Amino acid sequence: MAVGLLDGADTRTAIAEAVLTEVREVMPKDLVALLSLDSSLFALGLDSISIMDVVNRIEKQFGMRFREEWLYDMETCADLVDCIARHMGPAVASDPAAAVSAVAESSAAATPLAAAGPIPEAYYDVSLFPECVAFHQRLATTAAAGLENPFFRTSQRVQHRVTTIADREVISYTSFDYLGLAGHPEVIASAKAAIDRFGCSASASRLVGGNHAILDELDEELAQFLGTESAIVFPSGYGTNASLFGHLFGEQDLILYDELAHNSIVQGAVLSKAARRPFAHNDAGAADELLRDLRGQYRRVVLAIEGVYSMDGDFPDLGKFVEVKHRHRALLYVDEAHSLGVLGKTGRGLCEHFGVDPVEGDLWMGTISKALASGGGYLAGRKALMRYLQYTVPSFVFATACSPPNAAAALMALRLLRADPARVERLRNRSRLFLRLVRDCGLDTGNSHDTPIVPIILGDSARCLHVSKELLRRGVNAQPILYPAVRESAARVRFFITAEHTEEQIVRTVEALAECLT
CB–CB of 383/230 below 8 Å? Predict the structure, then answer.
């Protein structure tokens, strides 16, 4: 867009159109009628992550780079338009309307809230918080449309890939238990034995009394399996990401993350004082371009990517990101929550899949709550850094350690995986079968390939809710994924395949799915 050739008024009109178009793409369709320049971004269902998604796309249109601090006080679409207009360069900076807006904002910021009169109830009554009111309105609208809420379905029993819901057995596609080890007799026996030996809880953080022999063994065997110098197990995978970024990176640093990175990575970046930037999904070239522009402004820079993306079932070209890391003297952080036990001939993850030495990365994060059939997270890398983190990172130091039965379950699951990597191949075969069958039905599965995560993209939240309900009626449990977890245009029903799904179950599921969509 040749914005520089337009006068001030035309430029603002072009900016406004671009902003409204991008916001419309990410917001829930049932709220589109409320969209205007004066609309509150938060009332429209956007959060800080969604706003950054909009910003990332607008940058490309207007040839500019946003500074993080410009976004702090942004509340409406008009605020976003004003921000772009003020910072695009001389052709727009002279726009009188933008200058007036800037003065008005400064004046408003200097006025104490109390000076405007009594404190509004919505500032202190939690039930009147605008975000709470908007959320409950959306739930009411969904119910009024006759759409059943599919979330928090209660499982009464889980056996293999059959789940009992409301006294009825259904085939489940909602589990991260990719290798089917959560119900393995030896895993269960190990967890029970750990309870007899250590009790149900670690009862303290690992630093001050909650460390136990099983955790030490798990640390050591994880490092051996991953090919790193050291590894440490955390009580929470989410907490590992959310805590680590704020701990290692500060005001002089930059966190670059894939635009589809897990919420825990994004929130970790938000909670840190570092500058942060998303880049186009799986696009090492886009990250490289950003670093050419920005690297010299910062001390530490980290590239944060995932081994397998849990919404889309695709993965990055690790070698290309390693090249970008070295070219710009950056760090590489890889979240392997969904790639451990999934990628690579023996399930060792992204490095094994691409034949990359783990030393090429700096921080390998993952969970023991997916393929390793337990609950918790881990970090792996060089021994010097892991040793430092053991004594300092908040989510390790100040949280009760992973419980003995959880640690024992993960340790036995890891040993079973090492002893029988054929489980990984069986998982891969089942995943390929499901993907082939749904694609033969003409369904949109996005970029999913070679992973057990397969989205059926419908692009309509209401339709996703309806399909999920109809699938359950036909004996299949698969969850809809709606905005803000994904853009509204990418709303989907997501399937997690496991090594325990039978071919007959997969065929029957695809038949049921086809019936729901005809």
Answer: yes
